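Researcher: Quick one. two chains, 641 residues in total.
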Amino acid sequence: MQIKYIMSLKEEKEKLAIITAFMNYTLENDHFPKSVFKFCKDNNMEEKNFYKFFGSLDGVKGIIWETFYKNAMSLLEKDENFEGAKPKEKLLSFYFTFFEVLLLNRSYVLFALSGSDNMMMKMGQLSSLRKMFKAFSAELIEDGNVDKPSYLQHPPKIFSEAAWVQLGFLIKFWIEDSSADFEKTDQAIEKSVQTAFDVFDNTPLTALVDFGKFLWKEKFAAS
Amino acid sequence: MTTGLKLGGNYLKYYGEKALKLDGSRERLDEENAKDIYNSLKTLKGSALKVAQMLSMEKNLLPRAYVDQFSLAQFSVPPLSWPLVKKMIRKHLGANPESVFDTFAAQSSNAASIGQVHQATKEGKKLAVKIQYPGVADSISSDLSIVKPIALRMFNLKGQDTDKYFKEVENKLLEETDYQLELKNSQWIADQCKAIPYLKFPIYYPEYSSEKILTMDWMEGLHISEYVSTQPQDTEMNHRLGQTLWNFYMFQIHHLKKVHADPHPGNFLVDKNLNLIALDFGCVKTIPNEFYIPYFELADLNIDDNPEDFRKILYDLEILRSDDSVEETIYLSELFGRLIKVLTLPFTQKEFDFGDSVFWSEINALSETLSSDQQLRKMNGNRGSKHFIYINRTFFGLYSLLNDLKAKVNTEAYKEYF
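Model:
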């Protein structure tokens, strides 16, 4: 269930302006804003305008990720073939588009996730992204279950958590990726999704081998 | 052993045996040696494997079974997913495939060596859109450094400047990943060759191409190998096809001094009017004068009458080294003299029959010598101009295609298109 909150176009713009100001402030000062008071003062803004949209500074961090997700989804929904695509294609399309959105905000993302390493996906700022992405992947898993006998069906709860772990792996991969155009992230997306669906569909594990070779080369072999 | 010579020798051997339909040649190879090489090679991946295969001239250093295994591993790359294809088109052509083209097939129709081909239409025209696999260019240099120690051992390369062979191959492979360059080369060669009859090229579309995407006309036709094996053969028409191919190559070599250096059967189509269609200009070799002049002087030279000139050319082509012993100099001059005589035979006659089995058995006998000679094997392989690698590949590929067609060609006809 999605809560529909109707905002006027003007309000929508105001909210986006605050988000943009928040991201700029962070990058220019090398730290997140430390108080709503200071943040608003530096941006010639009344505090009540801030509180109209956000409960706290931490709240903004979460909403930024939410906005990335929604941007990606609205781009995907413009494609008339997206709705009818198979789960695997939907997931791939989502990842490619999501990382295109992240690319536009790479500096911010690198800063926001810096120093978090293994705990990254447990960060508070990602919690609403997590909720939305898990709902999306659970839907894909249910779609994938439709034509399967019950013993081959996969519980959406467990598998959507696995998808979240995969997204975390990909974000981390992208952060560390130094290839031109981030084409290695494209490969990582392609191969890890193929592999996940091989496991999912119980087909022979050719993609697993291919993905393993890729990972070995990128992460373990001296480059 | 001379690297250029050895590469040539292995090509000779392969094509010679192929032309004579000999089998079981594998058993004659030194089994221990093959196993050794195989063990080194099987740890390789990606383009390292491709390079290793190329350096071992694809078939001849390894038993068939091994080669087959490698080929399988190499081509079992899963095709790019539709979302990734869409993303690449978005990234390189600015919009989703459905908006750039009128129609665009989600399924790729075939895999090229470093990319896959999709069929599309635009304004009633059928197009082929080639999309490069991500990461190919990136891995070439690192892959090559893996192959290097193996190749050094395989060809007994010694001394300082062995890098020139690797650089040559590396540069050519990197060029193959630059589709902008391929587009430029294709358009230029097609334009230069337009006077040659029965020869066709696809039109290329720069507005739908980028470094990683290449769009051209969709060409209907059969690959030469399919044509030869499935169509009723008309001798006259085969001569005409062979003549077209010969004219195309000689025109490039002698007039343009730039040549399509990958003449394998998959790169040529025969259309329903029996025109020859040349595809895939990823690998174009420029022939510099310092190589061209001595190489073709050899073809005109009567070696027995001019031993001094002959020796001088061998130094120019870096076949002989100043640090060779007297025995080595004599031995190599004699061997290379025989090789040149056979290889340049087509140039010395006004008409040449590439179906002639005497010609191919001579090639075969010579390659046997080249690959089994112990004395040659012990010599420093760091000899022979780096240009031999792609020029030999071109000539043997060309001769082999002409043999497939059993073509009889007028060897001088190309001159009228200058």
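The longest strand of chain B covers residues 115-122.
Researcher: Thanks, that's what I needed.
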